[in-house]
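Please review the protein record below. Tell me whether the encoded fold seems credible here:
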Amino acid sequence: MREAAPRIVPRPLIAPSLVKWRFDFANLAPCLADYMMMKRANSLTRGALIGAALLSVAAHATVPAYAPTAGDLALPVSSPKMSNPKGGETLNAAARAQIDKGREALEAGELNTAEEAFAQAAKAQPTAYSPRLGLADVALRRNRRSDAEQFMKAALVNGQSSAEVAAAAGRLAFALGQNAEGEKQLKRAIAIDPNFVTPQTDLGEIYLASGRVPEAIKSFRNAIAASPEHPGARFGLGRALAAGGDMASAATAFEDAARLSPGNPLPLIALAELQAKNRQFDQALASLDRAAKAQPANLRVGLVRADVLVLSGARDKAVAELLEMLKTAQPPGSAHVFLKLGILQQAAGQLDAAQNAYLRAVEADDKIPLAHNNLAWVAAERKRDLDLALRHALRALDLQPGTPSFEDTLGFVHSARGEYDQAIEAYGNAIKSAPGVPDFHYRLALALQAKGQPDKAAASFKSALDLGKPFADKQDAKARLQALSAKHQGRKP
């Protein structure tokens, strides 16, 4: 019987045989977590956020088999066969049974079961490092970072010469923000076993996430050299090549990953995104059709398909397909469908419908900052439900503090409520973090003008215009500045 090629499958952060992909469809770069994707959008205005979200909201949709935590990293896909380093740990029968049980429970998101299984494995074989890796994974998923570090230290004691332990320690270090230590441990794993694919791909993901694209490409190529049939390495290479601007080679890498992992839609989704960027909309939709056949229940496919339809000018069809998706989508996944629907309706000026969609999104999942932000803006723009607008603007910032575009929304809400001092403060916070966004200066000027501070308002209108960037209200800013200047001239003795 011919051996099947390894699949791209979800896996926990620490356990070596399982991994999950996260993907930012806006720029073909991996995300550390949903909020990290949003941080890269900090400089966007509300309008730009709406536009960017057409290709980025799908990044929030998680692989159904795995609910990630904020400590997750976008790491390469591995299979047990291709990931196990030489000289891996020998477990007795009782420990092996519990380890297998624990890993299955982790994949299903059953943390209590997983924790108990790994604890039993540790009792069955006290000197084994594998149970400690599993316990570290559970602790990290529960955001018990100190516990995760302690379990990892125990694993390192029992597996000092293990490439598997070094690789897991590297992933954990990066999840904890210890980048230098993470890179050190991954390189140590590679030195122990140069043919061990997991740390090569992990390192590639880390480099890609930090913008070190040439190093990422090299790491993924090293992984492919060690294991040519590894789909995760091909997928990672495709994303790294895309980030470096080599779109043709990236497309080839995505096709290779899809061929090696026919049951996984992610390489085909990435290929579709690439084709859409090149305005090859028919090809992009065909790739998404292939992705849907690979995994019919994957919401991400439908969300990206909506993006492609919008970009091709078929907005109404995109809305219709999203409404159809909602007939079967369940929370929390349905939140992302409602969010996408709201974005399209808001862009079309259908504010009542957009507000309802955003409300349904936050009801399905309260932890999506963009949904709260957009709900706040729409409610304020309708000049109704201003208490609701303020509540959700504050919730967005609570979930993702310091985001300039969210501070801008808070300022807009306060202005709608006539609370100009608070609005001026919020706009000031937005400008402090992102001074190059003309919309922020423009809306600050409006608040200053409403507050009765014409000189400061004129200065802010001028700041918006002096940036030399296009923005929706540029002509209004010019007219208001001219009017304020004329009044100022009229006041001169």
In short: The longest helix spans residues 474-491.
